[in-house]
Amino acid sequence: MTRLAVIPGDGIGTEVVAEGLKVLEAVGVKFDTHHYDLGAARYHRTGETLPDSVLEELRGFDAILLGAVGDPSVPPGVLERDLLLKLRFELDHYVNLRPVKLFPGVKTPIADAGPDDIDMVVVREGTESLYAGAGGVLRKGTPHEVATQESLNTAFGVERVVRYAFDKAQSRPRKHLTLVHKTNVLTFAGDLWARTVKRVAADYPEVTTDYQHVDAASMFFVTHPSRFDVIVTDNLFGDIITDIGAAIAGGIGLAASGNVNPDRTAPSMFEPVHGSAPDIAGQGKADPTATILSVAMLLDHLGHAAEAVRVEQAVAADILARTPGRSTSRIGDDIATRVAGGA
Amino acid sequence: MTRLAVIPGDGIGTEVVAEGLKVLEAVGVKFDTHHYDLGAARYHRTGETLPDSVLEELRGFDAILLGAVGDPSVPPGVLERDLLLKLRFELDHYVNLRPVKLFPGVKTPIADAGPDDIDMVVVREGTESLYAGAGGVLRKGTPHEVATQESLNTAFGVERVVRYAFDKAQSRPRKHLTLVHKTNVLTFAGDLWARTVKRVAADYPEVTTDYQHVDAASMFFVTHPSRFDVIVTDNLFGDIITDIGAAIAGGIGLAASGNVNPDRTAPSMFEPVHGSAPDIAGQGKADPTATILSVAMLLDHLGHAAEAVRVEQAVAADILARTPGRSTSRIGDDIATRVAGGA
Ligand SMILES: CC(C)[C@H](C(=O)O)[C@@H](O)C(=O)O
Ligand SMILES: CC(C)[C@H](C(=O)O)[C@@H](O)C(=O)O
User: Fold this and answer.
1) Pick from A31, A224, A260, A284: most CB atoms within 10 A?
2) Under CATH, which number does the domain A102-255 receive?
3) Which atom of ligand 2 is nearest to the CA of A185?
4) Nearest-neighbour CA in chain B from A125: distance (Å)
5) Isopropylmalate dehydrogenase-like domain: from which residue to which, for each copy (chains A, B) (predicted)?
6) Are the beta carbons of B216 and A243 separated by less than 8 Å?
7) How much of chain A exceeds pLDDT 70, in percent?
8) Cα angle A228-A234-A235, degrees, rounded to a multiple of 5
9) Residues A274-299: pLDDT tens digits?
10) What is the pLDDT of residues B108-124, one digit of tens each?
């Protein structure tokens, strides 16, 4: 049976993951599911973030569903770096896949934009760049302190994600790929990205390409989102533009993501783009839709394309029928009922 | 007499600068003005971007007005790095000041947002971080290529811009300062920024502070711009969020900026946020308003506060009276007429 590791994490993570699993149950694909209590609570109890033994166990699964990690009681960066990013790096999630799609019926903050204008996929690199954690500090706390961060980029790492993005563009009706970077300032890394896109493009004659600086792209997300079809970009720029993407597509409550290892040398991990939102945790206020859409991506990744479509369609129908003030579990119930064919 | 260096630059830079000077003339402050033909044309003619002798001459001015640099005929990054960024670094423009303000009558792409919601100032650091140009490449063009970029941050550099931002916040009614960074990933640099804000805050008891990760801040620019009053941020993050700021405040045609050396050890430089827009250059289509607002910032910086307000008010009135299809020079004429008291 397909083995699924579940990491609910912190804050609203546990609440939204419960709804994701409800929908997974309703869709009828059987999983052998194991829960892992990684996150702030375990960190406080044991000092551990991601023990080696757990990491090794996780490698044996077919996929991972993650809620959210992070809590104000833990020093900033600890859970992010030693748990979430460590999983992405250790499991070689070199594709961080983030659809930006406005569902009919969802209110976008962008005036005059509709579902036809906002329908793109961001392919964010997941294992390089400033996320490598390289850097240091000298004379900390003195007037002579120097702090550095290093962005590490390799031909190997850039080419594989660029190829993935071309494949993705090739599979979509518009077949258009935009590289987003900052080649005029990050000249070494930007040049590597630009040359790689140019070279790989020769293998995809049907795909048209263009380039935007990250500052201009961020602006166009707001003013002309229909310019974009598939975007390929660096880890940090992808982090920023996918949050703008979430904003224009109706908010962080709807933004799904997959940390994908396309070579399948380790399990891929699916998670909502939102964080643990400690301010609303435990109140049944979180929208589980992003997690449920992440479950759809998980199903698709595991070869259950029809079930993935059923979940997506149930979400689309649920959105059109939205009534305000539904609780987290009520939204999960409603979508699960639709998935099971009940409505 | 006050000495002003003018660098029209490339593309629409020359067109918008002409209108900026028209307005400066109309406001009645006399300047001794010298033009410098830096940009793509000079690069092609002589191979020079910013000769040392010109840089030394520029140091002798009281301020610089710049249009835009950059042209597709020049390899990406050359004019940006060796001219624009070189000026910012050599003249120690450690404050890159970018107001994000929605003028009444301007259409913002953000539904439901009005002038009361969008009124902030971004204080972008201008002389450090990934803009230092540090980095390198190994085995270029091979499958084993490695490209790095290094972000350099110092206590000296961070503290001075943070103090400036606190002063700015102190001078505004809301007295609120938000640090935007990515402390959970850029842990060394982020920690330096966060500690510095915390320490300097003790000297500004009236200013409230908060913190946003750059991804969340980018989202809030779209969904909740009224959260922000003054923002202080790193060079790269400031580049990105000020373009989102331009987008929500009605477009790049209205976004002004100052590259400020608050210690006045060298001239400050004022420029529209937009680029040289080669696609519309020479057609009289560019909106000179961003340059004219940059001229207002220049006047204010040089101690002509009343004249700065007059230019701002003329722009505000012009915006309310906008008729579509006006040419670049017509907009300049209309604003200059208002400034001169004619309307
Ligand atoms: C929590 C943080 C480390 C993470 C990131 O920066 O990638 C988050 O913002 C995301 O986008 O998944
Ligand atoms: C042209 C480029 C180097 C510049 C920057 O990145 O600072 C521009 O985008 C800006 O914001 O002034």
Assistant:
1) A260
2) 3.40.718.10
3) 3
4) 15
5) 3-335
6) yes
7) 99
8) 115
9) 999 999 999 999 999 999 999 999 99
10) 999 989 999 999 999 99
